[in-house]
Amino acid sequence: MKAKSPAIIVGHPMGAVKEQSSNLYAQKLAEQGFVTLAIDVSFWGESEGQPRNAVLPDVYSEAFNAAVDFLGTRSFIDKERIGVLGICGSGSFVISAAKIDPRMKAIATVSMYDMGAANRNALHHSLTLEQRKKIIAEAAEQRYAEFTGGATKHTGGTEHKLDDNTHPIQREFYDFYRTPRGEFTPAGSSPDKTTHPTLSSNTKFMNFYPFNDIETISPRPMLFITGAEAHSREFSEEAYRLAGQPKELVIVPGAGHVDLYDRVNLIPFDKLAAFFQANLK
């Protein structure tokens, strides 16, 4: 009988789709002998769900649990050797999923964003409570508008034009999402909507606390990879601080947040492969 294979589920950055970054990781890990599955979370890309671009973090996390259901029932997969890898926002979704799914035997994140903290507090806790409440109030009013037949509004995401006032972080995302480097428009969408969640749903992230009880994932191993220059580095460092053993934090010299989406000369694929080979054996 042919030996069954280990498998890894790969999740894309928040607002992206599997064609943006996660397919690359899936391909590179497949070359190391793993069966890999790059998924679109619900409401994005080729996954179902209406309205498109809606934010429901619990459903995003469920996508990874459902992916385990699928892989674990394939005849060629060893269901005791399934790992998960989340890039950017998916890093927080795989942590949320893994807390209640012991079938995920090894958990890795790259350039992780805690999408809850990022929306509640912004980077470096720069968002005040008053500013947060204003965002929440605007989203709540938009629910009335959409419920009564008004147009769906979108928020956040990557800007479509650069000018002298464009923030450096937006420039970093623009260089990936708005150029041939990483631009991709899924079927049924349009370039003006890509990366942008709906305004009325985006506040759902403010009730999302993926790092609560992260230590309960132990003794399953966790690997956090972030760039030394990444604007998101604080999230990987916080997750590492809170996680139980065994855990490892890898800081990639000279790498920014988006660099680890696709810069194959910077992404530590050898480290990722070794982590999964050691823990899915």
What does this protein structure show overall?
With 281 residues, this protein is α/β, with parallel strands linked by helices. 36% of the residues lie in helices and 15% in strands. It has ten helices and six strands. The chain has helices at 22-30, 57-72, 90-99, 115-121, 129-147, 168-177, 199-202, 233-242, 259-262, 269-279; strands at 5-11, 35-39, 77-87, 104-110, 222-227, 247-252. It has a six-stranded parallel β-sheet, sandwiched between helices. Helix 3 links the parallel strand 3 (77-87) and strand 4. Helix 2 crosses helix 3. The radius of gyration is 18 Å and the shape is globular.
Strand order of the largest sheet: 2-1-3-4-5-6
Report the uncertain regions: none
Query: Rg to the nearest angstrom?
Result: 18 Å
Task: Indicate the overall shape.
Answer: globular
Chain-averaged pLDDT = 97
Q: Please tally the helical runs, counting DSSP H or I stretches of 4 or more residues.
A: 10
Count the E strands: 6
